[in-house]
Amino acid sequence: MTQERLISQLVSAPASLAQSGSVTSAYADMCNRRDFTFLVAVGALAADKGVKVELLGANDAEGTEAETIAETTYTAGSGGESSHLIAVRGRVTPDWRYMAVKVSNLNTGAATMAAVVLVSDSLFVPDDSGMTVLWA
After folding, report:
1. CB-hemisphere CA count at 13 Å for 50?
2. Which of 27, 3, 45, 31 is nearest to 115 (CA)?
3. Burial of 60 per CB tally in 10 Å (0-12, 13-18, 19+)
4. Separation between Cα atoms, residue 52 and residue 103, nearest integer Å
5. Would 54 disulfide with which of 5, 31, 45, 71, CB 3.0-4.6 Å?
C-alpha cells in the first residue's frame, strides 16, 4: 500500500530579528520529496511594521550561491500583531536540491521569528491493521 508521508524539520529555532536585520533558516534537503510547506512564525509586530519572507533555493546544504525563488511581505495592521503565521508552500522542482526561508525585518524595532518545514513524499507502508507512526 502506498501512502503519503509527512516529515517535519525545525529549520530555524526562535531567533531575534533585529531592526532592519534578517535571519536565514537552515537549508532543508528536498531530495526525493514532493511538496513542501515552510511555516514561519513571526512574533509581536508594532503597528504598521512588516517583514519580508524569501524562499531560497541552493544546490548545497550551506546555501552557496543561493537564489531567491519567490518572496512575500507582511505588514501588521494599525493595531499591531501579537503573532502571525506565514505559510510558504510549493512543489519541489529539480532546479533546487536544498531550500530555506529568509525573514527580513523591514522596519525599526526588534521582532522574533521561527520556522518549520513540512515535506511530503510517497512511500510503501505495509498495512498493519493498527496505527503506524510515521513521524513523532
Report:
1. 10
2. 27
3. exposed
4. 6
5. 71
Query: The pTM is what?
Result: 0.80
- pLDDT tens column, 54-82: 999 999 999 999 999 999 999 988 998 88
The SS3 call for residue 28 is: strand
Q: Where would I find the beta strands (DSSP E) of the chain?
A: 2-17, 22-24, 28-29, 35-42, 50-58, 67-75, 84-91, 98-105, 111-124
19/106 Cα distance (integer angstroms): 8
Q: Per DSSP, what are the bridge partners of residue 128?
A: none
- Nearest Cα residue to 101 out of 18, 7, 34, 9: 9
The burial class, CB within 10 Å (0-12 / 13-18 / 19+), for 101 is buried
Q: Spell out the residues 6+ positions from residue 109 whose beta carbon is closer than 8 angstroms to its own.
A: 19, 46, 49
Grid cell at residue 56: 531560497
